[in-house]
Amino acid sequence: MKGTAARIVALGLVVSLAGDATHVASHTTRYLWDGVPTIWKSAIWFPVLVAGGVLALADAGRRLSPRLPAVRTRTHYDVLPAAAAVLALYALTAALHGQPRTVSVVLTTAVAVVIWGVWDPSPGAAVGGAVAAIIGPLVEIGVVAIGAAEYTPGSDGLAGVAPWLPALYFAAGAVAFRLWNALET
Residue 1: pLDDT band by 50, 70, 90 thresholds? Predict the structure, then answer.
């Protein structure tokens, strides 16, 4: 059990660091607090927050799987392609910096739905995605509100964060919800 949790945290750290690096490099986001240690291009607290959220959703998925069963059983062989799909969506959001809101939201939402549909189009994975799509952006809105980071103009149209952020979190949350079981199969 501890080994599975450690692998989930490691995956969350890697995907969040690589994805966030695309946002910083594309000037989609910027960290504002001076003196905070960084890992790659992220403030040290960012990957910790994301990895904690991924672990919490994976554990919830494990606990709720008897009541919210998967449509598709995934194994550890499926985890890296799913994580890569989420990371590709993350990079796509960086490439969409400055694009019209309608274009970026429609494209990221469509890709997020495809990720959910290919990974596990179950109600449980959709619930995991929906929880992430609400909580993730709210946390980031709080981060922006306290002045720790900002989404730059052109990517800040949803209470100071990107309007496509719920779609990115939905895809990540849908995958995270089934990670525990997949890694133990």
Answer: confident
Burial 150-175 (b: 16+ CB within 10 A, else e): bbeebbbebeebbbbbbbbbbbbbbb
The mean of the pLDDT values for the chain is 97
Does residue 124 contact residue 105 with C-beta atoms inside 8 Å? no
Using an 8 Å Cβ cutoff, are 27 and 97 in contact?
yes
- CA 79 – CA 167 distance, rounded (Å): 20
For 163-172, write each residue's pLDDT tens digit: 999 999 999 9
Give me the residue label for tokens 């980071």: 149
Strands (E), the chain: 29-31, 38-39, 42-43, 149-151
Q: Report pTM.
A: 0.97
CB atoms within 10 A of CB 134: 14
Strand-pair category, 29-31 with 42-43: unpaired
